[in-house]
Amino acid sequence: MLRKKNIGFCADPGMVLVFSIFLVITGCVRKSDFYTANDFIRVPKTDVHLHINSTDPVYMEFAAKYKFRVVSPNVDSKISVDEQLSTSGSIKKAWPDRFTFFGTFSVDSFGTPGFAEKTIDRIDQCMKEGASGIKIWKNIGMVLKDNDRYVMVDDPAFDPVFRYLEEMKIPVMGHLGEPRNCWLPLNEMSDTSNFRYYKANPQYHMYLHPEAPSYEDQINARDNLLKKYPGLDFIGAHLASLEWSVDEISRRLDLYPNLKIDLSARMTHLQSQSIRDYDKVRAFMIKHQDRILYGTDITISSSESNPDERLRLLSERWKSNWIYLVTDSVINIKNLPAQVRGLHLPKKVIDKIFNKNADRFFTSQHESGNQGQSVIQSLIANLETEPVPRGDTDDAADDPAIWIHPVFPDSSRIVGTDKKGGLAVYNLQGKELHYYAHGLMNNIDLRYGFQIGNTSCDILASSNRTGNTVDLYHITENGSLEKIYKRQLPTEMSDEVYGLCMYKSPVNGKFYVFLNNKLGDIEQWELFTDGNLLDGKIVRKLKVATQVEGMVVDDENSALFIGEEDAGIWKFNAEPDDSVEGILISASAEKENCNVKFDIEGLAIYTLPKGKGYLIASSQGNNSYALFNRETPYRYLGSFNIVSGTTDGVQGTDGLDVTSVSLGSKFPFGVLVVQDGSNTDNGKAAPQNFKVVRWDSVAVMFLQNVPERIR
Question: Is the N or C terminus of the chain more exposed, i.e. has fewer CB atoms within 10 Å?
């Protein structure tokens, strides 16, 4: 086995890739690294471009027989977009694990008032029906006109639509332009399937329409779209309409990290190039294995006169493509003048192209109700803290906060509330180091770097139900707590204080505390210094309909998340002068997500670079934790619970906290700390405590790779 330490250039990912391609091409591989033609029937596969416009179950039963999942793109064409959406939605309900679709929108109302808003509403409708993305079609750029002007995909009128798709992280499949043959006379076309199509569809044969945009215009408009929206998750259908040159495709893939491609309806173009330069095409497929998806572009209508014939065509296409990509057999292809040698791609490449690269379309459906994984995963805690000292077996422990030591991460601390009497401080082994009997402490949070005079202080805030106040503490360098308030900050709310979180504004650098009660009232306090102590003032009030407790702020994105216990998770802007209106996160409510059971309790943010990361919520009603993407639209990824193992299992979690900072060898990717509402010791009820879980135990269940460290 090759090891990096033995090959000096392996530190360069590009060189690793080149070297890997060299090993494969020169034959330094094992037979077991490849599939055979006979493996076709048993290997899971996905056709990401199969138009199924019929609810007849025979087609999906046929796909299941051959172990295919199906992505069916809707198209703004002959069949109405509403009829396609209805059909796709029905198939999705019948085959949720094997079928999904890309919705679409009509451009018939282009140029009329409110076009962009109506289109965005249509996109939302598609996603709510279960779509995994949105398809845009070649009528944009080839048919659509504004008066006498052809409208291209980079037209400013589409900007609000693509901005929305980018912001909401909704994948877009784009069939823009046509094969370059489209601009040639019929007798000069290099592919007989193109000849037949354009002879039957002269409206799309651009050679007959010299007034229309050129092939180069189509490609440039698409490239401009990718430049304009670098965060747009874009799948270039049909080899991104660059079917004539793998060099050109490769150049675009290198230029635009947000671009992927599918192989649909352009396999003969790929095969034609491999006749001319086999090694180039094979190296292209291996280099870009993570960004290529398999598809056919066969269409099945609701009025098929001979379904068996359609299924025969589909079977032949699937098997022929499998043999070409998987084996090194020499085969005859109907539309090509010479025999073609199969590319003989390694198993790991085939698995990605045929299946794994499409997994995301089946595991994270936007706005579709029961999103993400349908099964609640299980893991075990790595250790537990000592019980809170003032509690018996009653409800006592409530909310943890993790403080990171500035020099020695393995000397970091866990602070936990005891709502029967105070605050406890634990080390990372779970041993109690300090206890402060300062009142009925409910929720806590902390922030780093509050400047008091010439001193930078780490600050902890706690909701204290003894006097319905916010109490403020300085966290010393050894993790102990010192009172630092000028006064205990008194709430103006009528009911007793409950949940709490903190926020450090990236806009003005100020520190804030959010405080709530059981009636759904929320106060935002701004903290400031008074001499060497802290004081505060209320700068904003928010309101939700019913009881809340758990709250967290994503400082980088100025996003406040509030758990309305019997409704779901609300997102508000955290700046004091922002709107008081919030949005309810999709799939955070019981009616939308079978894995979420009220009450919604503790919330926490696991941060990664560039705004990435995860929102974790305690789903107290089924003793589990729901995981959402940190980025809008906060897609639900799945749920997990903590079962007995090294410690007893966890039930009824109130508060939780998480960090992505490496806390030494025991917690290299950070740690999750949760309150255990039903602690046991040797099978007997014991005072409540906190359970501690390595973050990578969570990550490996829901994510393809363990997250990178943040120090």
Answer: N
Q: Residue 560 has which token pair?
A: 């406040």
Report yes or no: 409 and 391 within 8 Å, Cβ to Cβ: no
Nearest to 619 by CA among 600, 594, 592: 600
Residue 328, both tokens? 């090194």
Q: What is the Cβ-side half-sphere exposure of residue 211, based on CA atoms within 13 angstroms?
A: 7
Does 352 score more than 70 pLDDT? Answer: yes
What lies within 8 Å, CB to CB, of 446 at 6+ separation is 401, 403, 415, 458, 459, 460, 461, 475, 502
pLDDT band at 258 (very low <50, low <70, confident <90, very high): confident
Neighbours of 401 (CB within 10 A): 26
Rounded Cα distance between 120 and 104, Å, is 11
In this prediction, residue 390 has a pLDDT band, given cuts at 50, 70 and 90, of: low
Tokens of 533: 């102590």
- Torsion-angle region of residue 241: left (phi > 0), alpha (psi -120 to 50) or beta? left
Query: What b/e readout covers 693-711, taking b as 16+ CB neighbours within 10 angstroms?
Result: bbbbbbbebbeeeebeeee
Query: 497-554, pLDDT tens digit by residue?
Result: 999 999 999 999 999 999 999 999 999 999 999 999 999 999 999 999 999 999 999 9
Q: Which residues contact 328 (CB under 8 A, 6 or more apart)?
A: 341, 342, 343, 344
pLDDT value, residue 632: 83
* Cβ(657)–Cβ(601) below 8 Å: no
Beta carbons within 10 angstroms of residue 312's beta carbon? 11
Residue 703 is predicted with a pLDDT of 58
Whole-model pTM above 0.85? no
Q: DSSP letters along 304-362, please?
A: -S-HHHHHHHHHHHHHHHHHHHH---EE--TT-SS-EE-----HHHHHHHHTGGGTHHH
CB atoms within 10 A of CB 16: 15
C-alpha 75: how far from its chain's center? 25
Residues near 93 by beta carbon (within 8 Å), at least 6 away in sequence: 130
The two tokens of residue 622 are: 């089924």
pLDDT exceeds 80 at position 710? no
E-state strands within 197-280: 234-236, 259-262
Residue 596 φ/ψ, nearest 5 degrees: -105, 125
In whole angstroms, give the CA distance from residue 200 to residue 196.
Answer: 6
| Cα distances (angstroms) measured from residue 59 to each of 47, 54, 291, 301 | 13, 8, 27, 11
Q: Is residue 621 a contact partner of residue 568, using CB atoms and an 8 Å limit? A: no
- Token pair 């190039």 is found at 273
pLDDT over 60 (residue 133): yes
Q: Which helix (H) or strand (E) holds 492?
A: none
> CA of 72: how far to CAs of 158, 175, 511, in Å?
24, 14, 49
Residue 375's CB is within 10 A of a number of other CB atoms, namely 9
CB 523 within 8 A of CB 487: no
Residue 110 pairs in a beta bridge with none
Burial class (CB in 10 A: 0-12, 13-18, 19+), 502: buried
Beta strand pairing call for 689-694 and 383-384: antiparallel
* % of the chain with per-residue pLDDT over 90: 76
Residues 6+ apart with CB under 8 A from 553: 501, 502, 503, 514, 559, 560, 561, 574, 605
Q: Is the pLDDT of residue 17 over 60?
A: no
Rg (CA), the chain: 29
At 404, which amino acid appears?
Answer: I
